[in-house]
Amino acid sequence: MIYLIGAGPGDSGLLTLRGHEILLRADVVIYDRLVGEGILAMIPDSAEKIDVGKIPGSHKISQREIENLVIEEAKIYKNVVRLKGGDPFLFGRGGEEAEAIIKAGLEFEIIPGVSSALAVPAWAGIPVTHRDFSSGVNVFTAHDKENLIPDFEDSTAIFLMGVGNAEELEKKLLAKFSPETPCAIISNGTTAHQREIKTSLRELYDAAKKLESPAVIIVGNVAKLNLNWRKNLPLYDKRILITRPAGRSEKLASMLRDAGAEVVIMPTIKTSVIKNSLDNKKISGFDWLGFTSVTGVEAFFKLLREAGRDVREIGNAKIAAIGQATVEALKAHGLRVDFVPEIFDLENLVRGLSGKVLMLRAANGPEISKNFDEICIYKTDFVKLIHVPESIDIIIFTSASTVRGFVASVDGMRETRVVCIGRQTADEAKRNGFINITVAKRATMEEIFNSVLAGRE
What we know:
The protein has helices at residues 17-23, 37-40, 63-74, 94-103, 116-123, 166-174, 204-208, 250-258, 294-307, 324-332, 346-351, 400-409, 423-431, 445-454; strands spanning 2-6, 28-31, 48-51, 54-55, 58-59, 80-84, 108-111, 137-141, 156-160, 182-187, 195-200, 215-219, 239-242, 262-265, 269-273, 288-291, 318-321, 357-362, 373-382, 394-397, 417-420, 437-439. It has 457 residues and is α/β, with parallel strands linked by helices. It starts with a strand and ends with a helix. It is 27% helix and 22% strand. The strands form 5 sheets. The protein has a 5-stranded parallel β-sheet with strand order 3-2-6-1-7, with helices on both faces. The chain has 4 domains: 2-114, Cobalt-precorrin-4 Transmethylase, domain 1 (3-Layer(aba) Sandwich); 118-230, 2-Layer Sandwich (Methyltransferase, Cobalt-precorrin-4 Transmethylase, Domain 2), CATH 3.30.950.10; 239-268 and 383-454, Rossmann fold (3-Layer(aba) Sandwich); 274-378, Rossmann fold, CATH 3.40.50. The relative contact order is 0.09.
């Protein structure tokens, strides 16, 4: 099956639910230059990734070659995703690709995307229609030099891919419209690096020279309106990278997006249950059972189920846990937690326990200072980062292993500001050369968020 998915204008939050659902089960993803960094980071590690991005004036691969590539990949893989910026049917050549797929006799699905023609102006606070100014919208491609300027009097004109042709666009518009016609140019729309310039038609070309592509050009009276809602948000110009394992980042990502940030979720580690690690292992007769993470809780109960064992084997053991999320995970399995250290780390957990203690933890976790029993029930492996955004404002590390996983893939970015969940994580970041480090007051997603806010410029 071939899926033509519109990735939207850039921000990962503007990918549709259907697009996200399909992307997560892709076997191969063939993607364009304009697909946002956060969306590229969603591509599963197991999927083959093929960059067919076409740079203006220097196309990496022709359109016909792309169509042939999609068809050939569909003969090999079950789920082929053709990922295109914006909407695939609005100047995305999706129609041509769909025709080629039909001609090849293959099945496909179109998943519409949020178009930059409408989303980027809205992100910048420019309504493309307005009762007092515009009763219609015309969307053009500035690449069509032969038929560049249709009539759009009393309407709004949207030009996509227009920065490179701004000089010619200005000349042709001036032949029909007043030099004082309001214009706006928005570059890198819906991302943390969105930039916009309000100008007049007479100065359109001069303004365009100050911005980079991709950009959207708006011409018409609505361009003079200033309803920009994002600039009131505290993180509106920040691109933030979360390195936490997949499936554990949604709460924090949502908080950051609500504050205006562009969020890129790029796990640097992955965890897996160590098969049969509880087999023939005694979990009774202990004064305490200690859990260091939500992952440990889920691994423990999974292993119990697979072995046909019963949680009642723990007898009268008390339960200790690091962090509120771990407490909630245990509560969901019917276990009340008796001790949570005030500082959410292994050192303080161990310090608060005595007697006969069994720690249920990761195989490659830090050493325990006391002579406790332990069973390693899950392990952590590094994830090789394939497409790391060049420009990141803040990196969030939620464990020492996320730091190590990051530096295993990325040589630079040591001067980038980092926010760490606790002192052990911060120490690991410092050992690996990071110099601008903020430590959350408590090891919670809320405190990480507050730390991000506290350090904004």
